[in-house]
Amino acid sequence: MKVNVIKDKCIGCGNCVSLTEGVVFDFNDEGLAETIVEEVPADMEETAKDAIDQCPTEAIIEVTEEENK
Ligand code: SF4
Known about the structure:
Number of helices: 3
Bound molecules: iron/sulfur cluster
Structural class: alpha+beta
Helix content: 25-40%
Order of helices and strands: EHEEHEH
Distance between the termini: 14 Å
Largest sheet: 2 strands, antiparallel
Strand order of the largest sheet: 1-4
């Protein structure tokens, strides 16, 4: 599973960073969230999905294999 943060949509609320304990997302220099792993660790996939669902601006997307080619 791969995830991306759409930079223009993120408001830096930090929910995804704290939910995934800084393992999948972290803040960049602009205070916005970004993905810090190429692939979400298997034990973090459910949490990453929660982060997608809970992002207030729907800034997180799951990157499908199709889009990734
Ligand atoms: Fe940005 Fe959404 Fe993460 Fe909040 S939950 S920091 S808006 S990507």
